[in-house]
């Protein structure tokens, strides 16, 4: 399994690296194959066929994108059928929609990812009708986008742009942009010196929010990766990120996912260009971090270790075929109180405060899903071209 997500009712959706989408109604104990997405001719993506991201919005509409297809698919019946709603129409089939998010009013946002020259610049798109139709609200001069995410604590929308490359706009690459008005205007909140001609220090991909704190995971190829944060007080200035955790330097795996488990933040890293050790790290305060799982994986399992959490205190993830797990946060039972003395007139002694139990994280192996015959995909409507719009 690679991409995954929980719906509000606890249904778990997970995808493999061969266009297949699975569903579990028992927290990942068992899965059934519910859909296979159509392949496109001559795909060129390094993650072709990986079913990710998977996103379920508040009305329980399911969205899926698959690298190597340039498409975004939508389902209003929990995956029984899908309709194609977006197509980047790139010059190659190497693109997909890398992230989705929903604001407090129910509007949806998605971000494009492609490595080829396309009629469509890297863009953020918005939908006000539950993903049936989409409008480009902003384009950027980077190679592609890494993330778009809404913070319900302050109502701000954030975008992470990708690494700089020759021929791209060096004033818009490797930065975090923020919009206070849901995409109408944008400002830079994490900057990068434009004179750097190459990979800079601010290639971020993942975001996780703790009120106005913005936590960022890096995507540094062949460099040590880390978790940064900044406090967004609403000022229209570029903030200086603070590094709160640096992953061990034995392998330079990018950070691929970040979720909440009750009141604990978890970030995970993954293989990309070579074999090594993927890790899951956790923190209750955003400053002190611990490694709760470290797994040696091969390069063939790159982009695994994607975390998905539900409201019942469980995280699902997979290290690859036959390696699916759940993490639960288990709190020990409260200590038995010491009986108070009843002898009078001697005053009752003040009871000693019992220490707060320390959370423990328990990876629980989940049985391997049993494939079922592949259903015939629902026919897709003709792609709808999205007109490109360049920045001034």
What's the short version?
The chain is mostly beta strands. It has strands at 4-6, 12-15, 20-24, 32-36, 54-56, 62-65, 71-75, 83-87, 96-102, 108-113, 123-127, 135-139, 145-151, 156-161, 176-179, 187-190, 204-210, 213-218, 226-231, 242-246, 255-261, 264-269, 276-283, 290-297, 308-310, 314-320, 323-330, 360-366.
Can you offer a commentary on this structure?
With 392 residues, the protein is an all-beta fold. The chain has no helices and 28 strands. The strands form seven sheets. It has a four-stranded antiparallel beta sheet with strand order 1-2-3-4, with no helix packed on it. The protein has a four-stranded antiparallel beta sheet with strand order 5-6-7-8, with no helix packed on it. The radius of gyration is 22 Å and the shape is globular.
Number of helices: 0
Fraction in helix: under 10%
| Main β-sheet description | 4 strands, antiparallel
Tell me the strand order in the biggest sheet: 1-2-3-4
SSE map:
Blueprint (H helix, E strand, L loop, with lengths): L3 E3 L5 E4 L4 E5 L7 E5 L17 E3 L5 E4 L5 E5 L7 E5 L8 E7 L5 E6 L9 E5 L7 E5 L5 E7 L4 E6 L14 E4 L7 E4 L13 E7 L2 E6 L7 E6 L10 E5 L8 E7 L2 E6 L6 E8 L6 E8 L10 E3 L3 E7 L2 E8 L29 E7 L26
Antiparallel strand pairs: 1-2, 2-3, 3-4, 5-6, 6-7, 7-8, 9-10, 10-11, 11-12, 13-14, 14-15, 15-16, 17-18, 18-19, 19-20, 21-22, 22-23, 23-24, 25-26, 26-27, 27-28
């Amino acid at each position: 399994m690679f991409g995954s997500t929980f719906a509000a009712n606890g249904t778990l959706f997970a995808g493999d690296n061969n266009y297949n989408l699975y569903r579990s109604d028992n927290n990942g104990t068992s899965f059934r194959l519910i859909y296979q997405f159509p392949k496109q001719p001559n795909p060129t993506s390094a993650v072709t066929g990986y079913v990710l991201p998977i996103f379920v919005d508040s009305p329980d509409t399911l969205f899926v994108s698959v690298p190597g297809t340039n498409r975004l698919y939508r389902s209003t019946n929990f995956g029984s059928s899908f309709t194609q709603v977006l197509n980047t129409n790139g010059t190659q089939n190497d693109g997909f929609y890398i992230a989705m998010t929903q604001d407090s009013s129910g509007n949806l946002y998605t971000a494009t990812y492609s490595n080829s020259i396309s009629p469509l610049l890297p863009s953020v798109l918005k939908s006000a009708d539950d993903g049936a139709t989409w409008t480009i609200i902003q384009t950027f001069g980077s190679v592609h986008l890494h993330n778009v995410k809404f913070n319900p604590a302050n109502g701000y929308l954030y975008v992470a742009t990708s690494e700089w490359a020759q021929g791209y706009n060096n004033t818009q690459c490797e930065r975090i942009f923020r919009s206070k008005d849901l995409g109408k205007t944008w400002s830079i909140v994490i900057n990068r010196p434009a004179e750097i001609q190459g990979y800079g220090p601010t290639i971020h991909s993942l975001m996780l929010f703790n009120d106005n704190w913005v936590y960022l995971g890096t995507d540094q190829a062949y460099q040590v990766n880390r978790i940064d944060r900044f406090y967004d007080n609403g000022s229209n200035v570029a903030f200086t990120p603070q590094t709160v955790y640096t992953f061990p330097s034995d392998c330079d795996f990018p950070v691929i996912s970040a979720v909440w488990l009750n009141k604990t933040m978890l970030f995970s890293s993954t293989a990309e260009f070579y074999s090594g050790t993927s890790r899951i790290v956790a923190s209750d305060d955003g400053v002190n971090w611990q490694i709760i799982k470290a797994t040696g994986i091969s390069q063939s399992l790159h982009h695994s270790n994607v975390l998905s959490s539900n409201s019942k205190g469980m995280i699902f993830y997979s290290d690859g075929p036959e390696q699916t797990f759940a993490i639960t946060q288990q709190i020990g039972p409260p200590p038995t109180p010491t009986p108070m003395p009843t002898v009078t007139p001697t005053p009752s002694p003040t009871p000693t405060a019992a220490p707060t139990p320390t959370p423990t994280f328990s990876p629980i192996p989940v049985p391997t899903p049993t494939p079922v015959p592949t259903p015939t995909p629902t026919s897709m409507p003709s792609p709808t071209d999205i007109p490109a719009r360049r920045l001034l």
